[in-house]
Amino acid sequence: MPQRFGADWNPFSTSFISGEWWYDRSQNTFGYPLSEDDREWGDTTWEFLDPEEYAVLATQHMPCWTAKAGEEAMHAALVSGDPYAIDLAAGRHPAYRATADTLAGLLSLNTQRSYAGELLDRAIETDYESKDDPFVRTYLPEAGIVVPIAPGVVVALPLMRTAVALADAELHQAAQEYARAIGILEPVERTTHVTLSLAELLCAAGRYADAIDMTDGVVNTDDVTALTMAYRAMAQRELGDVAAAARTLQDVFGRDTRSDEVMGFARVVESSLAEPST
pTM for this one? Predict the structure, then answer.
């Protein structure tokens, strides 16, 4: 998550702006004017149903007559659309604890983010994989989640561990809890979206050498990998290897089909390669 405008931000000290991105050379800070509403989950049209549709989706798949009490209780709570009802159902039926933590957490993303983070943390700390959960496969077969990773990059995934981890990491990143967010993503399968999120987090945490090591071998094939390479260039620049940063950015600029947000960020990183003014 990019740094936001602070109360002491002086627009006249900003040395470079590209699109919505800006770079302040005097303070060595990057930013993007995000509001709280810009990072809402679920405002992208896609093939899966997002958390706001989970309750409706569950009504289309009713428990059979052989369903056990726990399954029926969880289904009824899910149909209600109330995260607390789902949490309470798992309290009475502990076998559904990880299922409830995941579903209640996702349902709370846009309303109670602190509560959502607590629940998703608990789900991620287990070996729970929602895409293999019989309850999820039965009652939420088309469910998924949209996660805004960075300006210009949004990932839409089915309801699975990787998607839950990305959403949870974004919650902690928004609260500037970088170490916690990194810890959530490190054990997760290293998809290109996870790699991008980690690169952004490692840079935010000042772990530039780790960001470079983690992005070794990344090739510019789409917006996700191009933005990852831009963060790699940022890390290289922070460690004083301006020449390597410039080469990395040339690879980013080598494709003119990337989004304006991604190219804008690459340009402000490029602007930061110049020596600070004295």
Answer: 0.80
